[in-house]
């Protein structure tokens, strides 16, 4: 499998546009490999030295997955093991063919405070920083390409890497008292998990500069005003918030999984491809659902009203 993925990545870098388009439809491709100086197994060995917390995945029968960042004693900061587990859960979600939607949340009423400082201190060289950067960019890019409509449920604080994770979701919801802060500048660095790139895509370059520099503090009202989040939830209770988020997500996932998943794939391709490639991608995805069970049933149902 790894050899096939390596060949696919090589083709993606050198192939003409139609081949690139087809390869982007494949789930599980990563941004970086050995040609970029990225050695995944070496990075994994380093990360597994920093235990603590877990990434929990619950797959509901209604097609909604719930991904929980669970390290409450450290405000759900990412330990090295949690970074490894995030990749494992993304791979599990890539293979969940019944899935349609995904909620990402933190345990115990807060989202995530970013990276665990124990790991940050130990991985102190520029080489270490770039290796973890490539690992997390790989993981979150694969997450972003999942054929699931995703929403980050932000309770409490989403800081640093936690704020970056919210940008990998299609949508964001906040509670009244929550905040999203890119605190990287205060730590003497910049976002490294792809957060700056995705933030510009979400709110534009000018607003992104305001947010990343700390000039604009994103409480729920300001985040809603600039289009960073879709809505502010009524409840602050952990259970009630999750229920609200599930109800909010339902509007996007009514219908058969194959149709919802094709929709998400088509939008993902549009974000990464030029116009011609995106149109070809849309055509190919249409071929997976046209004449399918959902299409035939809908045509038959509509036909009854036209008689």
Short descriptors:
six-stranded mixed beta sheet, 14 helices, Ethylmalonyl-CoA decarboxylase 1, globular, alpha/beta
Structure description:
The protein has 307 residues and is an alpha/beta fold. The chain is built from 14 helices and 9 strands. The protein has helices at 2-14, 17-25, 40-47, 80-94, 117-122, 126-144, 161-167, 195-203, 205-213, 220-225, 238-253, 257-272, 275-289, 293-305, and strands at 54-59, 64-70, 101-106, 149-154, 157-159, 171-175, 179-181, 218-219, 231-233. The strands form 2 sheets. It has a 6-stranded mixed beta sheet, sandwiched between helices. The chain has a 3-stranded mixed beta sheet with strand order 5-7-8. Helix 12 packs antiparallel against helix 13. The longest helix has 19 residues, at 126-144. It starts with a helix and ends with a helix. The model has no long low-confidence stretch (mean pLDDT 91). This is Ethylmalonyl-CoA decarboxylase 1.
What would a concise description of this structure say?
The protein has 307 residues and is of the alpha/beta class.
Give the arrangement of secondary structure elements:
Layout: H1 2-14, H2 17-25, H3 40-47, E1 54-59, E2 64-70, H4 80-94, E3 101-106, H5 117-122, H6 126-144, E4 149-154, E5 157-159, H7 161-167, E6 171-175, E7 179-181, H8 195-203, H9 205-213, E8 218-219, H10 220-225, E9 231-233, H11 238-253, H12 257-272, H13 275-289, H14 293-305
Parallel strand pairs: 2-3, 3-4, 4-6, 5-7, 6-9
Antiparallel strand pairs: 1-2, 7-8
Helix pairs in contact: 1-2, 2-13, 4-6, 7-8, 8-9, 12-13
User: Any low-confidence stretches, pLDDT <50, length ≥5?
Assistant: none
Give the strand line-up of the largest sheet. 1-2-3-4-6-9
Structural class: alpha/beta
Distance between the termini: 52 Å
- Given the C-alpha coordinates, what overall shape results? globular
Number of contiguous helices = 14
């Amino acid at each position: 499998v790894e050899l096939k993925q390596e060949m696919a990545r090589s083709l993606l870098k050198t192939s003409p546009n139609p081949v690139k388009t087809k390869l982007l439809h494949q789930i599980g491709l990563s941004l970086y490999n050995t040609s970029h100086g990225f050695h995944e197994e070496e990075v994994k060995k380093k990360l597994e030295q920093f235990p603590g917390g877990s990434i929990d995945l619950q797959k509901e029968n209604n097609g909604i997955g719930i991904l929980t960042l669970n390290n409450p004693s450290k405000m759900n900061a990412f330990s090295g093991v949690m970074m490894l587990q995030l990749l494992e859960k993304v791979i599990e979600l890539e293979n969940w063919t019944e899935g349609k939607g995904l909620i990402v949340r933190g345990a115990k009423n807060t989202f995530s405070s970013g990276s665990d400082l124990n790991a940050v201190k130990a991985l102190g060289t520029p080489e270490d920083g770039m290796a973890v950067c490539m690992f997390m960019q790989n993981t979150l890019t694969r997450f972003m390409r999942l054929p699931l409509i995703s929403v980050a449920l932000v309770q409490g604080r989403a800081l640093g890497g936690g704020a970056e994770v919210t940008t990998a979701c299609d949508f964001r919801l906040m509670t009244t008292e929550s905040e999203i802060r890119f605190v990287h500048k205060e730590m003497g660095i910049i976002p490294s998990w792809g957060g700056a790139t995705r933030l510009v895509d979400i709110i534009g370059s000018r607003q992104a500069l305001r947010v990343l520099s700390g000039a604009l503090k994103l409480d729920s009202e300001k985040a809603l005003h600039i289009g960073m989040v879709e809505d502010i939830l009524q409840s602050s209770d952990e259970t009630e918030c999750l229920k609200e988020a599930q109800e909010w997500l339902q509007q996007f996932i009514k219908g058969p999984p194959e149709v919802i998943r094709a929709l998400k794939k088509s939008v993902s391709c549009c974000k990464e491809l030029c116009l011609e490639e995106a149109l070809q991608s849309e055509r190919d995805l249409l071929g997976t659902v046209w004449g399918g069970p959902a299409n035939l049933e809908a045509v038959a149902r509509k036909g009854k009203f036209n008689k």
